Amino acid sequence: MRFDEAYSGNVFIKSHPSYEESSVVLYGMPMDWTVSYRPGSRFGPARIREVSIGLEEYSAYLDRELEEVKYFDAGDIPLPFGNPQRSIDMIEDYIDQLLADGKIPFGMGGEHLVSWPVMKAVAKKNPDLAIIHMDAHTDLREEYEGEPLSHSTPIRKIAEHIGPENVYSFGIRSGMKEEFQWAKENGMHISKFEVLEPLKEILPKLEGRPVYVTIDIDVLDPAHAPGTGTVDCGGITSKELLASIHAIAHSGVNVVGADLVEVAPIYDPSEQTANTASKLIREMLLGWVK
């Protein structure tokens, strides 16, 4: 991969022109090869960039402007259509290079399976890594219909890789009974339905540790984010998700990487979901990059 030239397509608002001078790299993972319901999240990163032009560069929540954070939008990783294993390998190699260059990876999905190789790469660099996971779904299956490479498996994969006790899931409201049982029996933290208050209780325990944050847009109620592959009613509000991002920003955790996944623009002609996602990314950049 080459990072010495700015991405030639649309870039996220206020992207810095220099890879070398930037501390954060924003990139897309346009993959939806393993989804079990509705495809379309491979178009998420491009649309999030496009609608970001409507954002204010200033955050009234954090009293910071985007120009205060040097981040480089590297565009999308050119993933091979329909080939999950090759795509995962390419993503891991990509993140390995970013980390070797001292960059903080901020990804946009794509289905949630794309988070697995990123978290795996970040764990190599940070042995004491903890995961904060916000989602409607447990994503703790070993396989789906006999396929271990599935968007329903990334959290199980990283939990087995770094230890279930280092994984903290919030907002969960859907999953197999066996998934919840596995988490309970193996010491993994799951907060059902809510995010903000249980997150506030956990953050002091993670103070000083490297943390990777993965957010599935379907943690939001479909009323706030209808443009996603697997909608699930009973979710949190966009206001609560913003407050949760800010809680992390004001905590003592060290965010060493993050992603926002599962935006599928085709299911939301109002573009509410893509616009929400772009604002969330702005707050993540301003709040988590010191």
From TrEMBL:
Molecular function as annotated in GO: agmatinase activity
Gene3D superfamilies, per database record: Ureohydrolase domain (3.40.800.10)
Signal peptide residue numbers: none
EC number(s) from the headed UniProt entry: 3.5.3.11
Top EC class, one word: hydrolase
Keyword Transmembrane helix on entry: no
InterPro entries tied to this protein: Agmatinase-rel, Ureohydrolase, Ureohydrolase_dom_sf, Ureohydrolase_Mn_BS
Keywords: Hydrolase, Metal-binding
Record family assignment: Belongs to the arginase family. Agmatinase subfamily.
Official protein name in the record: Agmatinase
Organism: Rossellomorea oryzaecorticis
Source organism phylogeny: Bacteria, Bacillati, Bacillota, Bacilli, Bacillales
